[in-house]
Amino acid sequence: MTAQIIDGKTIAQQVRAEWKERADALKARGITPGLAVIIVGEDPASKVYVANKVKACAELGLHSEHVVMSADTPEATLLAKIAELNADPKIHGVLVQLPVPKHIDSSKVLEAISPDKDVDGFHPLNVGALTTGNMRFAPCTPYGAMKLLEKSGVSIEGKHAVVIGRSNIVGKPMALMLLQQNATVTICTSRTVDLAKFTRDADILVVATGKPKMITGDMIKPGAAVIDVGINRMADGKLCGDVDFDSAKEVAGWITPVPGGVGPMTITMLVANTVQAAERTASGK
Ligand code: NDP
Question: pLDDT value at position 84?
């Protein structure tokens, strides 16, 4: 079997077009959705992510503010900036690019963002909402992975979904979203004994470990949908996922490539969350 390749770039474009229509409808009512992205420090990868987020907003005609703070910014100064943006009516989404420098408590930062503007979905209230099945803001990467499954026609209900990784930004919310869609969900971690036993039973396999090519074709159930969240930079400068694409695509039914799979969806869903936040403000919800 050769898997159907899930083309994240094309699907991201489709999804962006859908959200652009919603953004345009708001603009016609005099409301331009606005996103503020705060970056603290000079981390090169973070700078690229932030630049891409700002660019995506511009493409959809959204208002965006890019707040750059030096690496030695006191925690109180960052919290004051967040409070200012929380109160700014032009801004519907606020995010602080992680990681923040070590002297800043990232939990305090995430809790300082208004839950109504928490477009990353990391505030404990929004995490709780996701857990209780009343999702308000879905964390962008797993939200994007769910969209890829939906747009590819992969059915979820009643399927066995195995998520490898339990981070707060990918693994855990991914598992909760699959559960919400009535999958039977297993979460595997670095402590899982006999990982292949679980992966071989997965109808849907989501891999988010940061371990290059750790899932090989022989670990995959024939016909499974394989979502590779990993982004790893190899010694030759090329990117690869946590799944060994070449062997996996011979067994899987669907598979996401890296790059060009989950990656393009993350920022798309951030824009979607920002538009949704503005819609809620507009409707007073
Ligand atoms: P974390 O490092 O926070 O979490 C990795 C998880 O993988 C942990 O739960 C860890 O288990 C588990 N793990 C590690 N090794 C193994 C193993 N050998 N077997 C089973 N489980 C294992 O990573 P993130 O969730 O933040 O990111 C995961 C990957 O996704 C990275 O490559 C990252 O770059 C990528 N990513 C991509 C995004 C995108 O936009 N496409 C966005 C965010 C992340 P334990 O908890 O036991 O340590």
Answer: 98
For 36, phi then psi, to 5°, come to -110, 125
One domain, residues 241 and 202: yes
CA of 42 to the centre of ligand 1 (A): 23
Are residues 64 and 170 located together in one domain of the fold? no
Contact between 165 and 262 (Cβ < 8 Å): no
Q: Same domain for 78 and 152?
A: no
Q: Rounded to the nearest whole angstrom, what is the distance from the C-alpha of residue 208 to the centroid of ligand 1?
A: 4
The Cα 62–Cα 22 span in angstroms is 11
What's the pTM? 0.97
Q: Does 126 sit in the ligand 1 pocket, CB within 6 Å?
A: no
Q: What is the pLDDT of residues 61-119, one digit of tens each?
A: 999 999 999 999 999 999 999 999 999 999 999 999 999 999 999 999 999 999 999 99
> Does some domain include residue 227?
yes
- Between the alpha carbon of residue 117 and those of residues 81, 111, 230, 273, 275, the distances in Å are 14, 11, 27, 9, 11
Does 102 fall in a domain? Answer: yes
Q: Is the CB of 167 under 6 A from ligand 1?
A: yes
Q: How much is the CA Rg of the chain, to the nearest whole Å?
A: 19
Range of the structural domain that residue 240 is part of? 139-263
Query: Structurally, how many domains does the chain consist of?
Result: 2
Residues 102 and 162 in one domain: no
pLDDT band with cut points at 50, 70 and 90 for residue 260: very high
